[in-house]
Amino acid sequence: MLALGAALPAVWWEPLHLDERVMLELSPHNPVTIVREVFVDRGGAPLQFLVEHVTLSWPGGLAGLRLPSLVFFLLALAFMGPVGRGLMGSREGWTATLLLALAPLAVGLATFARMYALLLWLVLAAAWLSLRAGRSGMRRDWCAAGALAGALVYAHPIAPLYALPAFACGIAVSELSVRAAIAHARAGVVTGVAVALPYLYALAVLRARYDVGEVQPLSTTAGRTVPEEALHALTPEGVVGLILFTALATAGAVRLLRSRPRVGMLLALWVVVPIAFFTAVPADTRFFGRYVLPALPAFLLLVATGCMSVGRRPQVAVALVALLLALEGLEDANRLRTLSRLELTGLPSPARGEVLFSSTGSPRSDRPPELLDDLVALESPGVSRVEELPAIDPRFDPDVVAKGVRSVRSFLAGGGSAMGVWLFRGTERRADAAAARLARDPELNARRVGRELLVVSSRQVVSRRRLVELAERARVAWGTTTPRDRWPRTIAGIDRAALG
Length: 500
Hints:
Elements: H1 2-7, H2 10-13, H3 18-26, H4 31-40, H5 47-55, H6 61-87, H7 90-102, H8 104-109, H9 116-136, H10 139-151, H11 160-167, H12 169-173, H13 178-184, H14 186-196, H15 199-209, E1 219-220, H16 226-234, H17 239-259, H18 261-280, E2 286-287, H19 296-310, H20 314-342, E3 354-357, E4 360-361, H21 372-379, E5 384-386, H22 400-413, E6 417-425, H23 428-438, E7 444-449, E8 453-458, E9 462-463, H24 464-478, H25 486-499
Helix pairs in contact: 5-6, 6-7, 6-9, 7-19, 7-20, 9-10, 9-11, 10-11, 10-14, 11-18, 17-18, 17-19, 18-19, 19-20, 22-25, 24-25
């Protein structure tokens, strides 16, 4: 219930992310095409795309795009309890489960239509199978754990960083010596390697795609080091959350390394190894905090252990856990409050006879306003569209202008008449200024939605050529002169070129 309250509204409130647009682009293809384009051509993991292939058909819309991740997050919570109890005990296991339910990193990715929530669940499921194998010692149990650990690579390419500690859970809790436990787990290791063997091909593709080993180590978007960015991702936002969670995790690690060295070493490596890898690996890409989501369960188990260690009296431990949950819940509430102010649910659903043109506005990092029309089209299937900016991310498409011109010319060749709809997103001041300019236009109507959104529509049915002329006029009213107006200026130029 905590997780649903913190995450569910964002399914409909949050703007589209560039990576979600990739999911929308590839998932409707047939499964064979998905595997070829995602795994063979890109070296990526196809499993989430195959799931979305089904859910975008039913229930479709934003629910079909984002609810699978929410379901995977809830499944991860269901496995977090048994894994935490198996590694640490009931108090630490349930405490870590509560903390995971409100952890801002997990909650934010619970409605993100990519493979991170899926990977989190499968890592915990593999750990649970490994714990069962460690208790039973049976070969079939180790093979099941190894098979799932090996299959993680088809959920996300970074899975090997987390498959090893998940599989090692059974060894950590085994009553046998480490050498004997590893000998029992040998069948699982062989099974996992066999299942993951095709991943070697994907590794070669990824190495060429990201110039691995040929450039500088990964950077971050915020300018922090990778360890700093990872800790900020694992803890609630703010100095208090960072210091408190990190201190408790450190205290928990110290206690475990003294009292239960196998489990303590496992949890510490579960957190440290991925961060060290992303710090050292040279590749032509950036590090994002979401890459350490599968390390969050281990980190929170260390935090829970720290709470029990520092708070030797039950009342102190309960107060500490309550404080941690309050810090997490505060960030979750602030996120939902920010998203609710966007009022994306107030965007129009174009009716028959209305044409949706490309959206634009002021830059918004990885959730650009140029994806607003994709969001509207997702909730209004079959809407008539003119994609003047026909690219997932125009920054990396050298033919984006030529493609846009072809799209507009194809629209012009269709003949007939219609009404137009244009969407803009930017600062409140920018939207106010554009609305004031458009209020003097006899052919265009501007309507504010929330603080940042502006919906522009033609006042009456006009010819297609006239709609494209009005499209250019709407862009100019928004503004095309500053460096930040790159895409409004590009779209206006595309319209002018298409009109000749």
